[in-house]
Amino acid sequence: MSSPLSKPQIITHIQKSLNYTVFDSKWIPCSAKFVCLGNFPSGTGVIQIYEVNQGEAQLIKEVEKPKAIKCGTFGATSLQQRHIATGDFDGNLNIWNLETPDVPVYAVKAHKEIVNSIDGVGGLGIGDGAPEIVTGSRDGTVKVWDPRQKDSPVANMEPMEGETKRDCWTVAFGHAFNDQDRCVCAGYDNGDIKLFDLRNMSLRWETNIKNGVCCVEFDRKDINMNKLVATSLEGKFHVFDMRTQHPTKGFASVSEKAHKSTIWQVRHLPQNRDIFMTTGGAGNLHLWKYEYPAQRCKKDSDCVDVGVAGSVNLLQNVTLSTQPIASLDWSPDKQGLCVCSGFDQSVRVLIVTKLNIV
Amino acid sequence: MSEDAVLSLQSHSTTVDYRGKVPVEHLDYDYIEKCKDVRYLEKILRTLRSGEEGIYPHLIKFCESHLEKLDPKSRALRKEMPVATAASLSKDEWSQIEDELKRWQEETKKTETTLKHQSVFDDLVKENMPPVRGSSCFVPLSQKTVPQERKKPSKCALPRDYREWDKFDVEKECEKIEEDVDKTDPPAIINSGHPKIKTQVDTSLLSQQEKLFLANREKDKGNEAFRAKDYEEAVTYYSRSLSIITTVAAYNNRAQAEIKLEHWHNALKDCLSVLELEPGNLKALLRRAVVYNHMGNFHMATEDLRTVLREEPQNTTATQLMSQMEKKMEECQQEKQRKGKKILIQEIEEADNQTDSDNKAHKTACLVQPSQPVGGEERSATPVERGDMGNAHKKPHGRGDGGPHAESNSSHHEHRKNRGSSDKYKVPQEKIANGSSKRGSTASVQGDQSGSGKATPVGGNAGETVNLDAPCGALPPPLARLKNEGNLLFKNGQFADALEKYSQAIQGYTDSGIDSPEDLCILYSNRAACYLKDGNSQDCIQDCTRALELQPFSLKPLLRRAMAYESLERYRKAYVDYKTVLQIDVSVQAAHDSVNRITRLLIEQDGPEWREKLPEIPLVPLSAQQHRREEPPSAEVLQARAEKAARDAERKAEVRFSALKQEGNDFVKKSQYQDALGKYTECLKLKPEECTIYTNRALCYLKLERFAEAKQDCDAALKLEPTNKKAFYRRAMANKGLKDYLACSSDLQEVLQQDPNVQEAEKELEEVTKLLRQSLASTSPNKPRKTVPITEVEDDENVTAVPNSKNSCKGEDISINLQPASAYEFGQSLNAARSSGNTVACAELLASTAPEMLPQFLSTQLDGHTISFIMQALHSHLLEKDPYLVYQHLNHLHTADRFSVVLMLLEKEERHHMTQLFEDLSAVQSTQFTKNDVQNLANKYI
């Protein structure tokens, strides 16, 4: 048994109270700066850029936008440009140059309703192939966008006529290990998880985890898909081993109930895909490590390959506040540094120690 | 609560209802302590925490700790914890974290500004970017297609209309059924085969910053895949990382992944690349050792491991590998013996030399033993090994305390290298063993020094049979037992346990008030050895100092303290201690090596005046100052003294004897048989009962074609050792020279009976049988054929032992088949040419070989020497005559299997030859090829 001090510690480095509701916070790649996205009480949107400097977060820039901004990503931009793509309450997808954030470099009315979730791939050297952005919205559709193409999405995943449309809460890219293969995973309010293969333009797999899916994330976007974590409304999360897909059983998974409240988000450590943090509705953070089984694949009774799930170990848990932590982002450059924001109108920079030794 | 009540409750608790309320009686220390049911304990804990039955903080804590013991991962133990702050860390830790952060902030600022400067190129559209996906593809949210297909068969289940039977096509229906089966059971999709990942990353448009970032990312991905045991994927990602920027880490990691995949050659290549970038990289050395080990190249592997261990004596991986390899090597050696290679015969001869003196020492040791009641059995259990084969393992004397540095000792002993390093792990056994048995006795010291070499098979057994209650000096039995237990544990490598035993013994010693400083000294010294093994140098030094206070100038504590100092990098003190050790006993090789090493370090550190900074080296009094092996037995009586005198004389004789023998051997190597003969004869005057000398002299006689004398010597040798294979073989040769084919064949048969793998003997036998038949058939014996083979074989022996003595080769009349038709024939011819150094023959051979066939012919036996030999032949004989042929040969040679690996193993000189050849080739004017062609070709070689 390891002594408590040899465990990773989660330390609040900076805590900053804000005068607006912050929905998302993201590190700007290759910098000590992060972006906060949210809405003012008046209903207008806001983008703020902070720089971490000597134990403080200094506000560098603040821009007000007409619509409340729900989510953002740097996933589809180059390291040189570092444009952020955001989705707002009105269903717009915008890409901003943070140096000149007054006018978007790309804008499209993507959805009829709020964009709940956004993810990007193909930029920052993450994933080969074209830069693409995926958005998921309350209108039940999931759309993939290419910043080089105006006005219309490159792929559209929507319910057939007559089907009830579900609120899409979360989307994530994955399986982008060469310039053709690419998958999008979407989670819906009824517990559906759907995996779309963008290469074949087909639904590859679906399952239901019985409760609303708050967040899905692949452990890595730019590898042959390896693991998928899906968190749910009632405090459970599922880790799917995505390496072996059984024709009927699908992917093997392990689930863990950790939080007594909704798990709002899951984020994998960029430096180690087997470590991830979940953020809870009661303001707590759980740091997990996935342990692979001895054999990741076995034969079932019909001699068909079936995956074997591993186990998850809790490395550390802390409570930050009483309000949900709605977003968390690991710094892609500095291992152990992360920024998180909650509905207590504050943003925190955390340091997680000893991640390299677990 | 009574005992019974608790028990009944316990038995009850196994059937406890988890849903029911926890009875109040269960909220009790006794009950909780005895409860083994994790689930129920969790429930108790929950009840306790809820405070329904009152609040008992201590009981809660107790329950938690008990639960943790049973199930450390229990969810009930997870507690809400506040987030840590800077205050909850120690100052050092926090300042470290802060510093790191600060550094990172500064660095990122810099990288950011450079990135911004580069953003001018923003507009450059990546050419290789895939096009935009087809606009607005519609993807259905549900797999409608599957259920539809499934519905169809249900319709078909209806009974068919009679009219339909007419159209019924059996085959089509069968196909349909098969199709259905296929469709309902598609194979599992496994995402682990990934040939689609590119191993190259296009970085043409990236800035340095981005490249660094990317390379790191790819490496991380490789690491992750490695951790998930997905080694192929790991290799792919490391390759990607390397294609962006070459880094030591990525090469190193790829090597490890390749090792896991058992792609030895690739791994070797990677290790070599690392070592090229960063010579002396320990990881790379270690990995290369692993690779060599698997490729069967134990010599190279041990060399690498030794380098690693020199830098990092505590490296456990290296240590383990070393012992593993030692085992393998032993097996190998046995195998070799069975195969009976030519080398062996010569080697044994040289080893005999050592053995005999060792045995001598051993015998004398045993003689003195009866007067040594203490701990003698350990050594006497190591029997004197006599047979000639096993003795090849024997180690030279004067090893002393090897300890962690022992590996450097043996590096001088050429053909025993491998053994020497493996000994390193055996030495501690003896160390302790003689620590207990020493007690100032000459004999035992001598015994264990000569014995330490063959510890492997025998010492181990002896260690296990140690009587734990064996008396130890003046120690009372319980303490002696403790000490012996400690020794045993130490031998088994349980240093911590041994440490405890020794500590107990020391404690007991001080409590009992015995006055026996020697014993206490040994105890301290042994405990110091444990500390040293555990890497606890501080305590080791302390114990050694104590031991030295009790017994000034005892060798072992001094040596151990020196090692401890050295590991703490207190080189000056270490130097002084080593020097003191050498004053006591000059023959401690480890001390010599360490002194050399430390001297170098100190010169580096302190400059030329390093000596002035040294503390004073204590002058060792004469009484303590002696060659350990000659140390007079302090506890001995007159009898031993007399013996010693006799032994001294014997030893002198022995020294002279071995000197003479060595000279003789040297002369043989130089092919001066007449001189060697004289030396051997002198040897025999000193020691007429020496079998090897007879066989050696027989060899000389054979060479001088004095067969009768050779036969006599062999007879003498066989009288001393009736099963001496070599004597039989040489007598066979002598008989052959004397044309006594019958006797010859019977001798050869004797050799083959002893060892059926001696190939020369087999060959000879064949030939002799032929000769025998001829001589029986005709009266005129076939003269010209017989002498040549004898010299040939003997020469071969020499060549293998002394590869440089090419001058003694007389292989001119070896017929070389210049028209090879198969790889085997080619190989035969090439080998024949090579062994005689006949480049002309090789050149002819090459001239008659089609260049296209060369790689095929060579593939089986490509090695560095062959290549360089071919190069030489091409260079010296073919280049002038037919440069185009040379070009063609070179053009094909590099396509041979394993060529790139072999190329890496070429020595400097050989490389030089090669460059020379290419230079000359490019200077040649030719119509068939241009200078550029040669240049391109040269790139493949150099």
TrEMBL record, chain A:
Keyword Cytoplasm: yes
Ranges of the WD repeats in the UniProt entry: 133-146
Function of the protein: Key assembly factor specifically required for the stability of axonemal dynein heavy chains in cytoplasm.
Superkingdom classification of source: Eukaryota
Annotated TM spans: none
Keyword terms: Apoptosis, Cytoplasm, Repeat, WD repeat
GO CC terms of this entry: dynein axonemal particle
Cell compartment(s), UniProt: Dynein axonemal particle
Alphabetical GO biological process terms: apoptotic process
Source organism per UniProt: Haplochromis burtoni
Protein name (record): Dynein axonemal assembly factor 10
Origin organism lineage: Eukaryota, Metazoa, Chordata, Craniata, Vertebrata
SUPFAM superfamilies xref list: WD40 repeat-like
Automatic annotation (TrEMBL), chain B:
Ranges of Basic and acidic residues composition bias in the record: 376-388, 420-429
Biased composition (Polar residues): 434-453
PROSITE patterns with a match to the protein in the record: TPR (PS50005)
Annotated stretches, region: Disordered: 351-462
Residues covered by the RNA-polymerase II-associated protein 3-like C-terminal domain: 819-911
Record's subcellular location: Cytoplasm
Thylakoid in keyword set: no
The keyword Transmembrane is annotated on this UniProt entry: no
Any one of the GO CC terms: cytosol
Coiled coil spans: 315-342
TPR repeats: 282-315, 657-690, 691-724
Keywords: Coiled coil, Cytoplasm, Repeat, TPR repeat
Gene3D superfamilies linked: Tetratricopeptide repeat domain
SMART domains membership: TPR
InterPro entries per the UniProt record, alphabetical: CiliaryAsmbly_MitoImport (IPR051982), RPAP3-like_C (IPR025986), TPR-like_helical_dom_sf (IPR011990), TPR_rpt (IPR019734)
The protein's name: Sperm associated antigen 1
Source organism: Haplochromis burtoni (Burton's mouthbrooder)
